[in-house]
Automatic annotation (TrEMBL):
InterPro entries: Aminotrans_V_dom, Aminotrans_V_PyrdxlP_BS, Cysteine_dSase, PyrdxlP-dep_Trfase, PyrdxlP-dep_Trfase_major, PyrdxlP-dep_Trfase_small
The enzyme's E.C. designation: 2.8.1.7
Similarity annotation: Belongs to the class-V pyridoxal-phosphate-dependent aminotransferase family. NifS/IscS subfamily.
Transmembrane segment boundaries: none
Reactions catalysed, as given in the entry: (sulfur carrier)-H + L-cysteine = (sulfur carrier)-SH + L-alanine
Pfam families the UniProt entry points to: Aminotran_5
Native species: Sporosarcina quadrami
Full protein name: cysteine desulfurase
PROSITE patterns from the UniProt entry: AA_TRANSFER_CLASS_5 (PS00595)
Record key words, sorted: Iron, Iron-sulfur, Metal-binding, Pyridoxal phosphate, Transferase
Length: 380
């Protein structure tokens, strides 16, 4: 049975070039980058070269890149690190109702510690506006954290406009770009962000490595204590093989970005054209706004997400929903709930298809045809 992986927004297969670099470095360069001898210097060069590659992709300075264990740690440093370092200037934080849980759960924890959090609502396309942010701002606001592109529906937020709004305000501006980095061009000065999070495994790199861009001159309180790695901003010996692999993944992503964008948009067209031809009742969620090219969230009327996901998996098609099936219960997507309300049927019938390495036109068409067959069977 052919299996078709359409869950690249969850994680991506490692690129062969990245795998080769990862294995090569793991086998040959075991020195501690903090050591001053030749072994350490060889590892340090790999880390420094990776920092240059990644910073160039953002039009940033290499000293502004903090390597982390992934997007969650990067988000946590941004949120907790800023809240701690800015506490004397205020205790108000602005975010949105559709952030990744790495941000939302961090904000919930800060609420327990006495911080005031504003969770901006979104419209039916999953968007917030610059006006909403402006109206929520106070002289106590110390952090605004709004994701660049949503991981469930793909909605792109007006980060550049919000960045311009905050230019003369004390609030630090963070964007979780984990789903967007490597997919679309991100230039930190154009966006006017102070902090930006990313993760390697979302762009065909290894798991367990990410980074936080931190604008020069900005201070965040560290979350871990020990060594003086990453300019005293993140203690712990650097994961050299993963960092080298991350840099290779970034190089490939930058090189293939435009071609991938066209491919992913073509895949979306193929899937919807198959559904149209087979007279499937469906609706593309967040269809009237700018979205990431590789994410498509679709509501299939008359279906139930649990049975739909199980049947797709049995057919060899890997997709996901915004729900977590545990112990026989279904936790509705907080993103879809924020967009459509907690009573909407879309919370029970929406599927995320996401595209990436290893797909082609035939695989996408076959996946759409098999999806059609399953839906026609389930809605009878």
């Amino acid at each position: 049975m052919e299996t078709i992986y359409l869950d690249h927004a969850a994680t991506t297969p490692i690129h062969p070039e990245v795998s080769n670099i990862y294995k090569k470095v793991m086998d040959s360069e075991f020195g501690n980058p903090s050591s001053i001898h030749a072994y350490g210097r060889a590892s340090r060069k790999l880390v420094d070269d990776a920092r240059k590659t990644i910073s160039a992709a953002l039009n940033a300075d290499q000293t502004e890149i903090i390597f982390t264990s992934g997007g969650t740690e990067a988000d946590n440093i941004a949120v907790f690190g800023t809240a701690t370092s800015m506490r004397e200037k205020g205790n108000h934080i602005i975010t949105t109702a559709i952030e990744h849980h790495a941000v939302l759960h961090s904000c919930k924890e800060l609420e327990k510690r006495g911080f005031e959090i504003t969770y901006l609502p979104v419209d039916e396309n999953g968007c917030v506006t610059k006006t909403q942010v402006a109206e929520a701002l106070t002289d106590q606001t110390i952090l605004v954290t709004i994701m660049y592109g949503n991981n469930e529906v793909g909605t792109v937020q007006p980060i550049k406009e919000i960045g311009a709004l905050l230019k003369d305000h004390q609030a630090i501006f963070h964007t979780d770009a984990v789903q967007a980095f490597g997919i679309v061009e991100l230039h930190v000065d154009e966006l006017q962000v102070d902090l930006l999070s990313a993760s390697a495994h979302k762009l065909n790199g290894p798991k367990g490595v990410g980074f936080l861009y931190q604008r020069k001159g900005l201070q965040t309180a560290p979350l871990s204590f020990g060594g003086e790695q990453e300019r005293k901003r993140r203690a712990g010996t650097e994961n050299v093989p993963a960092i080298a692999g991350f840099a290779q993944a970034v190089e490939i992503a930058q090189r293939e970005m435009e071609a991938n964008r066209k491919k992913y948009n073509r895949y979306k067209e193929i899937m919807t054209s198959v559904f149209d031809a087979q007279h499937i009742q469906y609706e593309v969620n967040a269809n009237h706004t700018e979205k990431l090219p590789h994410v498509m969230n679709i509501s299939f009327a008359g279906t139930d997400i649990e049975s739909l996901l199980v049947n797709l998996d049995m057919a060899g098609i890997a997709v996901s929903s915004g729900s977590a099936c545990t112990a026989g219960s279904l936790e509705p997507s907080h993103v879809l709930a924020a967009m459509f309300g907690s009573s909407s049927t879309k919370l029970r019938n929406s599927v995320r298809f996401s595209f990436g390495l290893g797909l082609d036109v035939d695989k996408v068409r076959n996946a759409a045809l098999m999806t059609t067959e399953i839906i026609q069977r389930l809605v009878k």
